[in-house]
Amino acid sequence: MPGPRELQRVTTGVPGLDTVLAGGLFEAGVYIIQGAPGAGKTILASQICFHQAAQLRRTVYYTLLAEAHDRPDGLPPAPALLRPGAIPERVSYVSGFQILEAQGLPGVVRNLGELLAAERPPSW
């Protein structure tokens, strides 16, 4: 019987953060970024997503807030984050706000599961 699989890490692309995280985030993990308005949550999450897109990986940015991510000015303004062609081929921005309002947390969990199953490449 095989032993437990070692969890792989992926880099965030954020200087110093990978050091604090002992090499980066766990591959295929789900992470919640929480903080006050203006603290930089969207910029941090987008930087991680675009860094992974540059590494030819798929990412999903899932928000429960009523934010608009369907237009270019909804993205962080820093040019280093913007990689032409990465959206929607490698970075997906999804809002679960309406699902949260209509179905509560169980609906969000179900939606996340369906979304990740649809986005998951065969190698996962």
The mean pLDDT is: 79
Amino-to-carboxy terminus distance: 21 Å
Q: Spans with pLDDT under 50 lasting ≥5 residues?
A: 69-80
Helical content stands at 25-40%
Helices and strands, in N-to-C order?
A: EHEHEEH
By DSSP, the count of extended strands is: 4
* Biggest sheet strand line-up: 1-2
Beta-strand share of residues: 5-15%
Supply the helix-strand structural class: alpha+beta
Described by strand count, sense and barrel closure, the largest sheet is:
2 strands, antiparallel
Number of domains: 1
* Overall spatial form: globular
Radius of gyration: 15 Å
Specify the number of helices.
3
What's the SSE blueprint?
Blueprint lengths: L8 E2 L6 H4 L4 E2 L14 H14 L4 E5 L27 E5 L1 H23 L5
Parallel strand pairs: 3-4
Antiparallel strand pairs: 1-2
Describe the structure.
There is one protein chain. This protein is α+β, with helices and mostly antiparallel strands and 124 residues long. The protein contains 3 helices and 4 strands. The chain has a two-stranded antiparallel sheet with strand order 1-2. The longest helix has 23 residues, at 97-119.
Write a brief structural summary:
The chain is of the alpha+beta class. Helix content is 33%, strand content 11%. It contains 3 helices and 4 strands, in the order βαβαββα.
